[in-house]
């Protein structure tokens, strides 16, 4: 990679992503800075983490922009080499990008990670919400051989909303990603390596287990709200026991009304798939239906 001075606009960009929202962060940055998108590489992912969201990436890609779908990332090497990009930018891509590909662009490859690295490395962007972390962040870092371990080029961190929602989380994600990508890409174009991550501070954002999908009505409403939200953000229904049976919970909201003196888990009101339930410190309103798989 050659680091001679150049304009920071009009660069040739290849994107790697298999989620439309993540790809949108990249395409917004490309458009905002006058760069030229060359190619999107997407995938259904490995057999252990199959996803259909790559289809939405294909459907939502602008007309005229080539999209390469593969589960063998190295098959993209000749295509990317022929395009001679300036930079690869990845976001929510479930495979390691091999060194042979990272070496092709003039300025290498960077990744947009939805967490303040080295905390919450890994595939679960909603783990920090589920855990009740105090902050939310986005890190732009150099692509390294191991996931989310490369030198940090930029990082934006904000306080986690007291009562997070899908809307507030995605607004934060978009705000942080825009600032981090602008700053991080500028350093990438200057061929900076970024700051090394402190391994002593590293944590892992593991996928949710089956046990973590089950809500426990003795928990406070705020805890249940963030757990249900985190599961929803990862495309999962929360599970809960309601009146003795298993239900799939698709939405949950705290209710400010004073709760009656009944045990947690008691249904206070119900109508058309919506329930008001007593929880540890109050009431929640949920949308739920009987779980098909029990």
Automatic annotation (TrEMBL):
Keywords: Transferase. Residues 77-174 form the Formyl transferase N-terminal domain. Its EC number is 2.1.2.9. It is an enzyme of class 2 (transferase). One of its GO terms (molecular function) is methionyl-tRNA formyltransferase activity. Residues 209-287 form the Formyl transferase C-terminal domain. It comes from the Bacteria. This is Methionyl-tRNA formyltransferase.
């Amino acid at each position: 990679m050659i680091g001679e001075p150049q304009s920071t606009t009009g660069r040739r960009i290849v994107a790697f992503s298999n989620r439309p929202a993540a790809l949108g962060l990249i395409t917004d940055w490309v458009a905002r800075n006058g760069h030229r998108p060359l190619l999107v590489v997407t995938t259904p992912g490995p057999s252990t983490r199959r996803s259909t969201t790559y289809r939405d990436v294909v459907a939502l890609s602008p007309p005229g922009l080539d999209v390469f779908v593969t589960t063998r990332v190295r098959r993209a090497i000749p295509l990317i080499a022929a395009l001679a990009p300036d930079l690869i930018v990845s976001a929510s891509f479930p495979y390691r990008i091999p060194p042979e590909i990272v070496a092709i662009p003039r300025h290498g490859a960077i990744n947009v990670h939805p967490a303040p690295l080295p905390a919450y490395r890994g595939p679960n962007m909603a783990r920090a919400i589920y855990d009740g972390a105090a902050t939310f962040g986005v890190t732009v870092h150099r692509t390294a051989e191991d996931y989310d371990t490369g030198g940090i080029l930029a990082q934006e961190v904000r306080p986690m909303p007291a009562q997070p929602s899908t809307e507030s989380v995605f607004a934060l994600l978009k705000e942080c990603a825009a600032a981090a990508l602008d700053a991080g890409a500028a350093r990438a174009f200057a061929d900076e390596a970024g700051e090394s991550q402190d391994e002593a501070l590293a944590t892992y954002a593991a996928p949710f287990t089956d046990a973590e999908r089950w809500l426990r009505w003795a928990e406070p409403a705020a805890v249940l709200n963030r757990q249900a939200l985190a599961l929803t953000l990862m495309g999962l229904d929360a599970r809960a026991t309601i009146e003795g049976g298993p239900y799939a919970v698709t939405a949950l909201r705290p209710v400010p009304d004073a709760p009656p003196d009944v045990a947690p888990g008691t249904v206070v009101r119900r109508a058309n798939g919506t329930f008001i339930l007593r929880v540890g410190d109050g009431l929640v309103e949920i949308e739920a239906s009987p779980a098909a798989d029990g």
